[in-house]
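Notes from the 1:1 (GR / supervisor)

We went over the backlog. Supervisor wanted to see one worked example end to end before approving the batch request, so GR pasted a single chain during the call. The sequence is below; no edits were made to it. Supervisor asked that the structure be written out right there so they could see what the output format looks like.
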Amino acid sequence: MEKQEPGLRQLLVMDVQRHRELFGSQPLESKVKVWLSMFSPRFIPVLLCRLAYKSHTLGAGVLARMFSLLNFLLFGIEIATTCKIGPGLFFPHTHGTVIGAVSIGKNAIIYQGVTLGAKDLDFTYDAAHRPIVGDDVFIGAGAKILGGLTIGDNVAVAANAVLLESAPDDVVVGGVPAKIIKYRKV
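Structure output shown during the call:
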């Protein structure tokens, strides 16, 4: 039996809970507090990318692009409307971030100036030339992850790293070009 994907509302609640965990806040007791906590400059970009993706999946491409454009204009973050992102997404800072990945797993933390995309011009958004990011991944400021590679679960990509090859689970990668610099204990 296939596991059902969470709906938009459930994803947003999970995102809010993740943001509150990262900030050490108390659990949310009421639905009102959940929705009020969404008015944060670190959360609104997540909300807009969720609305863009949901609009895209419903076949409302123009609306999806409008949400994406609003995200770009307000927060300087460009996220492909086709990029599937798991719950718990967190952007400590957003400006200069470009996300053109195929998918990103749950509990990703992505800093400013990050690029996830193709190695060369790819306006057709060919999934074979775009990265796939696993669960519980940390991507440091200025990191570039380019090409049709896969990043495993529990991976940390150091600031300003240029990752051009796939990375297995439980590693820290860094450098130009990025290499494994440490194995993480699970």
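Supervisor's comment: Residues 8-183 form a domain with the UDP N-Acetylglucosamine Acyltransferase; domain 1 fold (CATH 2.160.10.10).
Batch request approved.
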